[in-house]
């Protein structure tokens, strides 16, 4: 199974926007990441997001650029910042559509916990906003994953058609 773990794009401060929508810089970085994923031929079978606005916006912007229907982006609280790998694993095992590749737009430290569980390490990647980590694993089995690549937003911006 291929996992694409994406930390949401940069968000507005809470005192400016209590819902913490993506900032203009965040939209730019997520757009660059999505275009880079498209150039790499990435076509996730499922896209998931937390229920927080910045994560939903990240998932839906990526989905639209990858020609994935926005209405099929699955939003769940299990992908919240404090979401545990065990909760995510249980949720994905109960998800009705089997998927060979999934993209999760989420938050720190939850994404770090999930990556660490999949790989069987700790602090395996230094996530940044709009960065994408690709892990290959044996299904949803913890400790079976290996990092294939990690691309930061500034690297995605260098990719051209």
From TrEMBL:
Superkingdom, taxonomy of origin: Bacteria
InterPro entries: His_Pase_superF_clade-1, His_PPase_superfam
Protein name: Phosphohistidine phosphatase, SixA
């Amino acid at each position: 199974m291929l996992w694409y773990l994406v930390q949401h794009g940069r968000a507005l401060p809470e005192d400016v926007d209590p819902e913490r929508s993506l900032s203009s810089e965040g939209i730019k970085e997520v757009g660059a990441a999505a275009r880079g994923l498209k150039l790499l031929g990435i076509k996730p079978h499922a896209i998931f997001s937390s229920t927080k606005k910045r994560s939903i916006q990240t998932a839906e912007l990526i989905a639209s650029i990858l020609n994935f229907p926005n209405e099929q982006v699955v939003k769940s609280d299990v992908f919240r910042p404090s979401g545990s790998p065990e909760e995510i694993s249980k949720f994905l095992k109960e998800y009705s559509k089997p998927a060979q590749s999934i993209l999760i737009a989420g938050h720190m430290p939850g994404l770090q916990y999930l990556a660490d569980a999949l790989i069987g390490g700790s602090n395996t990647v230094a996530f940044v906003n709009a960065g994408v980590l690709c892990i290959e694993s044996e299904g949803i089995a913890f400790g079976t994953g290996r990092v294939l690549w990690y691309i930061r937003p500034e690297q995605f911006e260098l990719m051209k058609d």
